[in-house]
Specification:
By secondary structure, the chain is α+β, with helices and mostly antiparallel strands. The chain folds into two domains: about 1-50 and about 255-405, no CATH class; about 55-250, no CATH class. The chain contains 15 helices and twelve strands. Strand 2 and strand 3 (about 110-115) form a beta hairpin. Helix 1 crosses helix 12 and helix 2 (about 15-50) runs parallel beside helix 12. The chain is elongated and about 100 Å long.
Length: about 400
């Protein structure tokens, strides 16, 4: 009976019901899309930062992260990689040897990182190759060919084809030096990295630095990057006590904290917006309910109890809110899914985006059904709570007062 009466009241006040539905639907759709946009931008930023160079999982010598020195290297790459090959959740892996040297051109000398990498494997593990700005990426059989960051090239005043020298210390603490020729220049958009990093193909690097079968890092790409933390723990157990395995959440802890802080501020902003919307819906509901005081006074006069009035009005509000939240949630979900498949592109802003670690100006939303359902539930509760005060307020009127209300 109450459901039938509630539906009749909703249809009888069609204009008010439609406005209420629009308010709730639009608000829900905005909440769902705003959350998808925020999560998508964070995921994109993290993905870019991880994939540009650091990798999802880093394996090092057991003390290397705390005391990075030649004393704590990976001294047997072959054994470590054989173990990695037998783990089905490992998609790709490659070794790297990072050393800090002094680069020199004429009277100009600049300190920086010189790393030996496996070029073919890096194509799938990092974005070094796709960050190429000028020249060519490295090949496995390259000798004295150098792949250098654009800012470091500027500091040294070198271009593709130019020569430079370096002086460093080999893995056996011997003197290492050579004349190198710039093969390619890259730009990732991470200024510090572009201003300090240069790369050689590892076979040639090993000859110069006496680092054959040695590595500072082994980078691992999981079959499912979302499970990087679990795989890192598993690798730590499989490889034994001589090695340390850490996922990107550990190696890039500052970035994770930054994203968490940004999320907090994002949700605070959304919270303020929706507090305002809460009061807008409450005020609109209050006006709607007060316009029906005489109608409710008649119901009270013929014997309807305050509890029944409360239940009737709450049922009407629940039905309208439920319909509005479902419509808004579906709309928000459609937009979230569409812009995940077709990311929003901010053309002309590539340089600005790279300053914040984004290698591309295309940002997708994050379509996550669980998050969408959560936002719909939040909006449902928020909208329902906003109707309680008007309902309780009108229930305080006595039947005679309500019937005489103008």
């Amino acid at each position: 009976m109450f459901i039938r009466l509630a539906l009749r009241n909703i249809t009888a006040h069609g204009q008010r019901s439609i406005v209420t539905l629009l308010l709730i639907s639009i608000t829900t759709a905005l909440l769902v899309f705003a959350t998808a946009w925020m999560d998508g931008s964070h995921q994109t930023m993290i993905k870019n930062a991880v994939e540009i160079y650091p990798g999802y999982i880093q394996i090092t010598g057991v003390k290397f992260r705390d005391e990075p020195s030649y004393e704590h290297l990976i001294f047997d790459i072959k054994t470590a990689t054989q173990k990695l090959s037998g783990i089905d959740t490992v998609a790709k892996f490659a070794s790297r040897f990072e050393s800090y040297v002094l680069f020199s051109v004429g009277n100009k000398a600049v300190g920086g990182m010189l790393a030996g990498i496996e070029p073919k494997k890096e194509l799938e593990l990092s974005r070094l190759a796709s960050s190429l700005q000028k020249g060519d990426f490295l090949a496995a059989n390259d000798g004295d060919k150098l792949y250098i960051g654009c800012e470091l090239a500027k500091r040294l005043h070198v271009d593709v084809g130019d020569k430079l020298t370096f002086i460093g210390t080999g893995a056996d603490y011997s003197f290492a030096a050579d004349i190198l020729r710039v093969k390619g220049i890259f730009r990732t958009g991470l200024y510090e990295f572009d201003a300090n990093a240069a790369f050689l193909a590892k076979p040639y690097f090993d000859q110069l630095m006496a680092s054959d079968n040695y590595a500072t890092h082994i980078i691992v790409l999981p079959g499912n990057p979302k499970l990087a933390d679990d795989l890192a723990k598993r690798l730590g157990k499989c490889l034994g006590p001589k090695y340390q395995s850490a996922s990107w959440t550990e190696t890039m802890a500052d970035l994770v904290k930054g994203m968490e802080l940004d999320s907090i501020f994002g949700y605070i902003t959304l919270g303020i917006i929706f507090i305002v919307i809460f009061f807008v819906i409450m005020i609109y509901t209050l006006l709607n309910v007060f316009s029906r005081i005489r109608e409710l006074g008649v119901l009270r006069a013929i014997g309807t109890t305050p509890g029944q009035i409360f239940g009737l009005l709450l049922l009407e509000s629940t039905l309208l809110t439920l319909i509005g939240v479902i419509i808004g949630g579906l709309l928000g979900a459609i937009f979230a899914w569409y812009f995940q498949q077709h990311p929003i592109v901010f053309s002309g802003f590539e340089d600005q985006f790279k300053q914040y670690g984004l290698a591309a100006s295309a940002i997708p939303t994050a379509f996550n059904p669980v998050t969408i359902l959560r936002d719909m539930a939040v909006m449902f509760i928020l909208s329902l709570l906003s109707t309680l005060y008007p309902i309780l307020k009108i229930n305080r009127y006595k039947p005679v007062e309500a019937m005489r209300h103008v």
